[in-house]
Write a structure and sequence with these properties.
About 55% of the residues lie in helices and about 15% in strands. The protein is α/β, with parallel strands linked by helices. The C terminus is likely disordered.
Amino acid sequence: MRKILVIEDDKKMRDGLVEILANEGYNVESAENGQVGLEKIKKNEFDVVLTDLIMPVMGGMEVLMEIKRIKPGINVIIITGFGTIENAVDAIKAGASDYITKPFKIDEVETKIRMVLATAEINKYPQILESDIIKAISNPIRKDTLKLLDKSGKLKFTEIKKMLKIDDATKLSFHLRTLKSYNVIEQDSEKVYMLTSAGRKLIDNLKMMEGTQEIIS
């Protein structure tokens, strides 16, 4: 279960965010200011931190800088008002993953978190990014092949050809070789195709990102 920390001095907004995210299935903790938040970060592991930009005791920019110093792998989303969007842009330059502006909609918060988590997951597989696999699967045949294998588990060449309704066997063979070269699919001893562990991670993130795009549209 993904773990999120909400740092917000406004109790009503803090409790509201905690409730929203908990209802989405996240493990959520909260802190009323940056100092308390940082103490929790030092003692626990969080996937995402949502922190208000303007707070007493310790501002969001200071919180961000300290997080990037002690635990740079944590994704930080800045919460800001319309009047401080320029500061939010500065926060992005300093390492924040994204920002949301007050007042915000529930869908916006959920969307930002899903996008940040999806990007973070893909970044765990540098071999995928270095091999330009994201661009490679922009081809609909290759993307549909991954989705098909994700749904069916294992398939023979002829089954993939039939299910994708591809007449040209040579074309399909080319796309399958391309996916194999990126190590997202493999064949067993009987030449049956299946996803690799990297392929499963990739398809999980594709589904997450596509779900996010549906929310946006």
